[in-house]
Amino acid sequence: MSDGNDHEALPDGTELQIRMPPELEAGVWSNFAVVRHSPYEFAVDFVRLDFSDQQSTRRGVVVQRVNMSPQFVEQLINALSENMSKFASNLAPSSLESLEDSGGGAET
Is the dihedral of CA 54, 56, 57, 58 positive or negative? Predict the structure, then answer.
């Protein structure tokens, strides 16, 4: 049984104990992202787009905005790439391969 904490380690071996507050455990759903940057930081707006109607303009709501340093963005890209490769080779349906090739779902 989980103790409610995630245990990770930094590259230097330092153990991290990360607590998830109960109000964040459910997470949020996002099916689109907008990425912006300045010389000092990146901002990622995670958006939930509404596909319930057939209008030419899609409505969406930002469900979370995350601001990050350029150094952290690079580390995040590497971690996402590594995890996506593992997912694609082990678990992903074959239809995900075409999404990965086209870069779908994010606006830069």
Answer: positive
pLDDT in tens, 70-93: 999 999 999 999 999 988 888 766
- Assign 28 to helix, strand or coil: coil
Q: CB-based contacts of 18: which residues, under 8 Å, 6+ apart? A: 5, 6, 7, 8
H or E segment at 104? none
Mean pLDDT of 32-49: 97
pLDDT band for 34, please (50, 70, 90 cuts): very high
Give dist(CA 88, CA 9) in Å, integer.
24
13 phi and psi, to 5 degrees? 95, -5
Predicted TM-score of the model (pTM): 0.69
Q: How far apart are CA 78 and CA 90, in angstroms?
A: 19
Q: Which residues share a beta bridge with 65?
A: 45
